[in-house]
């Protein structure tokens, strides 16, 4: 057993940085991490420590350093076809993580390539190189045609502060809202919470008065103090939860949301769900007026987060995904 653990500790993964909160989870795998920063299109050219601290046993490297590294990586973790092309000359297994629906991605990026063409191109390329795809949800896996391996995000309730709910205000954490309004059902959100005190947190340079948390510790204090959390999403484009809403659940906040087939929230138990803006606003007012109710519902939300989105489950499932990627790489038809 000790030899196996030592072997895991000596493995190094090469990881493209997509967003820090997801990459930070990989610290639980027990591997060393080389994390590629300075990628095109990212708003910050290094690791954003306001979102998460750098995972243990990690180092930050540039793409040229990754391309030229003498390290023999156990697996290369990518997030899009650009990442795959950027490391095409390396000779290690590769794993593609699907974070969004193909339709949502096309909308957000205003791509000229049709979703169907994008899907076909990616499927063909992965077959050609012997790559493996894992999706963070079934909705996103189905969208791209990869449904055999689904590994949801995870949270650790022990990372968060005891809920107080002392601030009579709702909370929502979201980056780049302007480019994602359709995905987030923003019109519905604004109608539902018109007149309700809600704090928006995140990197949104075009929205006055909205700013990101100063650090993960700062975000934890914000989660601790606010009364409830809001997540709204188009069921065709996005899941009924995301990393931010799972964090809120782990921190003991009740969740308010539109009705969504993949929502982990049980209506009236761990939060409230409604497709009627006026009804959702009524529920928000109930929680603002009754902190005891919010506390009880938040405890139920926390239980669900612990049961359904545990770090242990993520670790076991994602290590299997890596082994699947290694198997496919070893049996690929195309060799360089």
Describe the structure.
It is a single chain. The protein has 336 residues and is an alpha/beta fold. Strand 7, helix 8 and strand 8 form a beta-alpha-beta unit. The chain has two domains: 2-154 and 311-330, Rossmann fold, CATH 3.40.50; 157-308, Rossmann fold, CATH 3.40.50.2000. The longest helix has 20 residues, at 311-330. Helix 8 packs across helix 11 and helix 10 (243-250) packs across helix 12. The chain has helices spanning 2-10, 20-24, 63-68, 81-86, 102-109, 115-129, 138-144, 186-192, 216-225, 243-250, 277-289, 291-308, 311-330; strands at residues 12-16, 32-36, 58-61, 75-78, 94-98, 132-135, 167-173, 198-201, 226-231, 255-257, 271-273.
What is the fold's blueprint, element by element?
Layout: H1 2-10, E1 12-16, H2 20-24, E2 32-36, E3 58-61, H3 63-68, E4 75-78, H4 81-86, E5 94-98, H5 102-109, H6 115-129, E6 132-135, H7 138-144, E7 167-173, H8 186-192, E8 198-201, H9 216-225, E9 226-231, H10 243-250, E10 255-257, E11 271-273, H11 277-289, H12 291-308, H13 311-330
Parallel strand pairs: 1-2, 1-4, 2-3, 4-5, 5-6, 7-8, 7-9, 9-10, 10-11
Helix pairs in contact: 8-11, 10-12
The CATH class assignment of the largest domain is: Alpha Beta
State the end-to-end CA separation.
Answer: 36 Å
How many domain units?
2
Question: Which architecture name of the largest domain does CATH use?
Answer: 3-Layer(aba) Sandwich
Structural class by secondary-structure content: alpha/beta
Anisotropy-based shape: globular
Tally of helical runs: 13
- Give the fraction of residues assigned to helices: 25-40%
Q: Give me the CATH fold name of the largest domain.
A: Rossmann fold
Q: Biggest β-sheet: count, sense, barrel?
A: 6 strands, parallel
